[in-house]
């Protein structure tokens, strides 16, 4: 028997792929969810808290949106968080449509009450991280070396910075989250003025002792967060974040703040863990996030107007991998 059914055209097949996207996005609440996921990653309970609704109801919305490709799950140990998809293909009509939906949603200002709730969740995360370092300041090096010995990522990062500094002529540098201050001697040798910023008083005391012992007289240690420096109007040629992003409430915001704190032509150097599944790191090392996909860092940098440069990947014997990345601020940036 001959099958006379018409073969679907490419156009109709593409249109069929669009229907679930428009159906899943045809709800004001779901559009609000997409908006809050612009830079942040939230769990089901956090999203339920943001939108003041039952977890079962939120889970239903997330399931529909995930199936349509509007968001994707990200496992953090035993918890599931949600984010916008990282890899959208510019050649696929469905992915183009999703990107257009994101662009339109992002043009709508965030309601003040929603922004306040987001800040409350970030504060909860920050307090959790800060409490950990207050409790374990005396064992900081031992705790961190459960994941990676300092030298394994510090030396490749330092070498990358030295290569760039020889050509760029940097004068000012900022290290976000210096810990015990082990990397400050590298920056102090390359730049006339260095600022070390940390929100943990206990860790800042350790960094102060390091500066005294090593006679790093051009380092200014400040207790606070990036907003502290933005309010002062500081600007730097180089910003460094060594193994810091997985401890901060909103890693994407660090990219935005680094861009705002850099002079034109400045460089943001990041070393951090690649995404992993070793959940014990949260309790034993105070990690808020189990590493990051390289595409996440690239997307956050793009959103902050930074251009990706060199990437190094360092494999460790215990199953972790460290990525060292550089991101540049265009000389034409405002």
Automatic annotation (TrEMBL):
SUPFAM superfamilies, sorted: S-adenosyl-L-methionine-dependent methyltransferases (SSF53335), Winged helix' DNA-binding domain (SSF46785)
Domain of life: Bacteria
InterPro entries: ArsR-like_HTH, HTH_ArsR_DNA-bd_dom, Methyltransf_11, SAM-dependent_MTases_sf, WH-like_DNA-bd_sf, WH_DNA-bd_sf
UniProt domain HTH arsR-type: residue ranges: 10-109
PROSITE patterns to which the protein is assigned, alphabetical: HTH_ARSR_2
CDD domains the UniProt entry points to: AdoMet_MTases (cd02440), HTH_ARSR (cd00090)
Sorted UniProt keywords: Transferase
NCBIfam families: HTH_metalloreg
UniProt protein name: Metalloregulator ArsR/SmtB family transcription factor
Source organism of this protein record: Marinobacter xestospongiae
């Amino acid at each position: 028997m001959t099958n006379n059914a018409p073969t679907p055209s490419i156009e109709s097949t593409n249109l069929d792929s669009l229907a679930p996207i428009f159906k899943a996005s045809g709800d004001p609440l779901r559009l609000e969810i997409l908006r809050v996921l612009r830079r942040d990653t939230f769990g089901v309970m956090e999203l339920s808290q943001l939108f003041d609704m039952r977890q079962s109801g939120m889970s239903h919305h997330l399931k529909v949106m995930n199936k349509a490709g509007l968001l994707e799950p990200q496992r953090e140990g035993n918890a599931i968080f949600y984010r916008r998809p990282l890899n959208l293909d510019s050649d696929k009509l469905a992915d183009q449509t999703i990107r257009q939906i994101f662009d339109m949603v992002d043009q709508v200002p965030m309601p003040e009450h929603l922004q306040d709730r987001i800040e409350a969740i970030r504060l909860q995360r920050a307090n959790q991280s800060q409490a950990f370092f207050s409790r374990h300041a005396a064992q900081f090096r031992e705790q961190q070396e459960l994941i990676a010995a300092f030298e394994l990522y510090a030396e490749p990062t330092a070498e990358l910075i030295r290569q760039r500094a020889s050509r760029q002529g940097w004068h000012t540098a900022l290290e976000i989250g210096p810990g015990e201050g082990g990397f400050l001697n590298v920056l102090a040798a390359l730049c006339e003025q260095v600022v070390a910023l940390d929100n943990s008083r206990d860790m800042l005391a350790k960094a102060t002792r390091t500066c005294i012992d090593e006679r790093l007289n051009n380092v200014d240690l400040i207790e606070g967060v990036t907003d502290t420096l933005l309010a002062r109007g500081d600007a730097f040629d180089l910003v460094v974040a060594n193994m810091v992003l997985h401890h901060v409430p909103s890693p994407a915001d660090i990219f935005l703040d680094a861009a705002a704190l850099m002079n034109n032509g400045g460089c943001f150097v990041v070393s951090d863990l690649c995404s992993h599944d070793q959940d014990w790191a949260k309790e034993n090392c105070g990690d808020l996030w189990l590493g990051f996909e390289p595409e996440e860092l690239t997307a956050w940098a793009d959103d902050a107007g930074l251009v990706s440069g060199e990437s190094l990947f360092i494999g460790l014997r215990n199953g972790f991998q460290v990525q060292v990345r550089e991101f540049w601020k265009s000389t034409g940036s405002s």
